[in-house]
Specification:
The protein has 266 residues and is of the alpha+beta class. The protein is 47% helix and 13% strand. It folds into two domains: 6-143, Up-down Bundle (Four Helix Bundle (Hemerythrin (Met), subunit A)), CATH 1.20.120.450; 152-262, Nonspecific Lipid-transfer Protein, Chain A (2-Layer Sandwich). The strands form two sheets. A five-stranded mixed sheet has the order 5-4-3-6-7. A hairpin with a 2-residue loop joins β1 and β2. GO terms for molecular function: metal ion binding.
Amino acid sequence: MTQLPHDRYCDEIAHQVGEFRAVLASGADLSATVPTCPDWTLEQLVRHVGGALRWVELIVRTRAQEEVPVDRVPEGGGPGAQSDAAALEAWLAESGALAVAALREAGPDARVWSWAGIFTVGFWARRMTHELVVHHADAALAAGRPFGTVAADVAADAVDEWLQIVQFVQRALPDGPAKELRLPGRSLHLHATDTAPELNAEWLIEPAEDGVVWRRGHEKATVALRGPLTSVLLAFYRRLPLDAPEVEVLGDRKLLEFWLERATFG
């Protein structure tokens, strides 16, 4: 599946960092629990995101050829424990700027380490784009703020990437939860109802015996998840409940729930 241009990913990372900062600037309670990441407060989520940006910046800037321990990342933990929202926002802004600058300077084809066996800077630009989209949704939920709409090209690519990650996890962690996603004869269909036909924002997913396979297109399936593309994306990432009014489930709901429970990073 064709990915987005490298600069498009860089632009979206900068945009999502700005949206994340707006959540912090809104007066959100940093101690609020993140409903979709219940082990984290909003402050811990911010520190996770900023730390990830700085980790990727270091990998890309130094052209690291092996995994970089997170404790080697300069200022990777963020400001001190008693810092307020303004300090966290400033640190997050700097984290995003550093990461985007490193990604742009390196270009998509420079060789660097990654955990997924795709040894290019382009992997990290794409991964951080979708990491930020999803965690921005987490932050909005924690702050009780509306999330808005993800650009259609980014949202569709986020679905593609998530499916590719599930395939990778099945290969790399054969004993992990994703191993159970082997259900010959069953299938899932994702159908965005608000996009232009040329985007082809529909997917058929088959959890086959040899591993998950998928393709873009409109096809009948055991279960279908329908709705606006952003809502489909959030539901597929377990950031929106299946009974939310924005989405509709047709067919075998238990199959979709089974998928969502087991499609993880491992």
